[in-house]
Amino acid sequence: MSSSEKMAAFIEKVSAMQTADPSERLCYSRIIQLFDEDSFVSMDNQVVSRSFSDSFDRPKVEGDGVVTGYGTIDGRLVFAASQDPDVYGGSIGRSHAMKIVKVIGMAISSGAPFVALYSSGGARIEEGVLALEGLGAVLSALTQAKGRIPLISAILGPCPGGVALAAVQSDFILFGSGTSRMYMNSPAVTAAQSGDEVQPSEIGTPLTHQKETGLASFVLNSDEECMQKIRQIFEYIPVSTGDTVSFVREMDPQDDPNRISGKLNDMASDIDDDGLDIRIIFSEISDRRTYLEISEGYGTDMVIALTKLDGISVGLIGNADLRMTEAGAKKTANFVRFCTNFRIPVITFTNAEGFVVGTDIEKSGILEAAAELIRAFSESAIPRISVLSGMAIGSAYLSLNSRMLGADVVFAWPTAQVAIMTADSAANILFRKEIAASPDPIAARIEKVAAYREQISDPQIAAGYGQIDEIILPSVTRPRIISALDILLCAYPMIEKSTQP
């Protein structure tokens, strides 16, 4: 073929590609929904698999069942891979895998996030060990990327075995359609091993990972909602530039940093009757009263969220229940590590009287989970602010961003209690004999409980020992935190403030 013939053939091929509607292919339609319009650049789209065996070879397909490349999300560079379920079920062969490895490497070099859209039947059977080599390379690349760049996975179809192991390396995992499944072993095999106890359709469901494993950060109703949620997540993750992370501070956060909340005063006044609704607290302090809750179906005693305070991205952590669980501690520890990796300041609201109680609890992994939470905070070199909003008792207080674990600033509401145990429990132990011997045990007990609260657990006592920096009105929580953040961001040299829009 002459040079002119080659040019004519290539021009014809490019023209045909340009006139084709990419949205007709599911893998491309997801990319189009995710990225800014006309920003995505596809790479290695002519790669095909290499023959492994004449007996089991399949026809070659350009792209080998995965679209990889880069583009922008709200102007920010992001790399991605979207598996094509219409090409051999999205199965991973070596060429398919090495395309993914390539863009992960480019993402690491650029300090840019990587998004994987999974819909796969697993490793390509006919490629044997070569498919395993490719899958192993993907797992290795993701291991190198973990903690260095943000990793987000969307489960948009089957995600089995080794592919599932790749997905769970991510910082966020989203389930975006009714057919989404993520599992280690085939549902049919698992159901067969379980007899009549479970159906294949119940294996690896979004609900399972939302409620039981805690792997689902978000469960959405459609692929489109999933893509929009990914875009929303990026609004809160700072931008990496080389070895530093720049805080993206909005030029106009459209909210007053000095806004106060009378609602928080009312909540604190009624804490004995109504407790504290941590989600209301999060709402009242956040810019435009908006925050993004993560993994809300798992470890429900704890609430974790991303939000902005005067335009600065921060992580929020708070107690929804008075007793902390193993799942809640694990969820919180993972979130603290994520925030640490990407230099997102953490704000905690403590209202806990301890960890859950029971003989079964003592046989569980709660001790290890609590210790992991303590390690996550202790090793966290980011600005951290603690607000003691209610009960701050014993090991629950210590493990949740206490001054002893390195919290930079500690505020307390006047209704907080800081002690080894609750006033009721302490009075029963310390004054059991006096109460029993009193002519009016009920009155004596009330008196001793009140005395313990005033003389031991009152936040003024902890403030007097330097464990609390300031006791504040709940209504001024937002401006106090923002003021502290402004100081802390200047005190952490590894963090580079930015006024990028």
Task: Describe this structure as you would to a colleague.
Strands 12, 13, 14, 16, 18, 19, 20 and 21 form an 8-stranded mixed beta sheet that branches. 41% of the residues lie in helices and 21% in strands. The chain is built from 20 helices and 22 strands. The model is unreliable at 494-501 (pLDDT under 50). The protein has 501 residues and is an alpha/beta fold. It has 2 domains: 3-234, 2-enoyl-CoA Hydratase, Chain A, domain 1; 247-413 and 472-498, 2-enoyl-CoA Hydratase, Chain A, domain 1 (Alpha-Beta Complex), CATH 3.90.226. It starts with a helix and ends with a strand.
Q: What ranges have pLDDT less than 50 throughout 5 or more consecutive residues? A: 494-501
Name of the level-1 CATH class of the largest domain: Alpha Beta
Assembly category: single chain
Strand segment tally: 22
What structural category arises from helix and sheet content? alpha/beta
- Count of domain modules: 2
Terminal Cα separation, in Å? 53 Å
Annotated CATH topology of the largest domain: 2-enoyl-CoA Hydratase, Chain A, domain 1
The largest sheet, given as strand count, sense and whether it forms a barrel, is: 8 strands, mixed
> What's the CATH superfamily of the largest domain, by name?
2-enoyl-CoA Hydratase, Chain A, domain 1
Rounded to the nearest angstrom, the radius of gyration is 27 Å
Helix content: 40-55%
Named CATH architecture of the largest domain: Alpha-Beta Complex
Mean pLDDT: 87
Number of helices: 20
